Amino acid sequence: MGQLEGKTAVVTGGGTGIGLATAVRLAADGAHVFITGRRKTELDVAVETIGSASATAVAGDISNLADLDRLYDAVRARGRGLDVVFANAASASFATLEQVTEEHFDQTFDVNVRGTLFTVQKALPLLNDGASVILNASTTADNGTKAFGTYAASKAAVRSYARTWANELAPRGIRVNAISPGPIDTPGITAVFGEENADDARVNLAAGLAIGRMGRPEEVAALVAFLASSESSFILGSNLYVDGGENQV
Fold first, then answer.
1. Which of 50, 112, 201, 247 suits a disulfide with 55, CB 3.0-4.6 Å?
2. Into how many domains does the chain fold?
3. Which domain holds residue 136?
4. What confidence score (pLDDT) does residue 201 get?
5. Is 151 a catalytic residue?
């Protein structure tokens, strides 16, 4: 039996990258995983990858509260409450201070901050005592990457939420923690840097890490699975880095 046998999990942004790798890992550990994302076709493929008996896909945008309601209605209908929430979905794009527009700011904060807030808030009535909530922050919140200020600020807000919610939910035995991935080789690299620049970006990102390579989504998933399980029972309000040494050495 896996460490999450009989548990129910939600993974936002579960159709690709870190979200998909985490959904696969949580399902392998015994959980039934609800995944959500904006692209239904991508989610359908993800369910096949995870295993249709262990996964349920609900298409939606976490910045849309009605979509979150539909997600949690599906979880509620299963009748077993909720044991793990991985608030992973995010939006990222480059813009220097001079280039930031209202649209850029609103898009980033609507998904990364507002979406994360309501992903967790709307889960509260379903969370079983002793549940684990994991928020996906980022090393960019610390390192001042040029033209990534809005994204970095949104991830700093996510990190701050983890501290506050850890205090607020601790009386129910619910643990809230954040993770901060460094450069991870996912389709998001192409989405952020563009198809023509993606390969060069991967080389440059890897060169900047003491470990000498980019991370794999499965390596982040392993950390999330640890935080989701009772093996991390004395970890609360933390921000754990999975960054190949980027912000450590």
1. 50
2. 1
3. 8-242
4. 95
5. yes
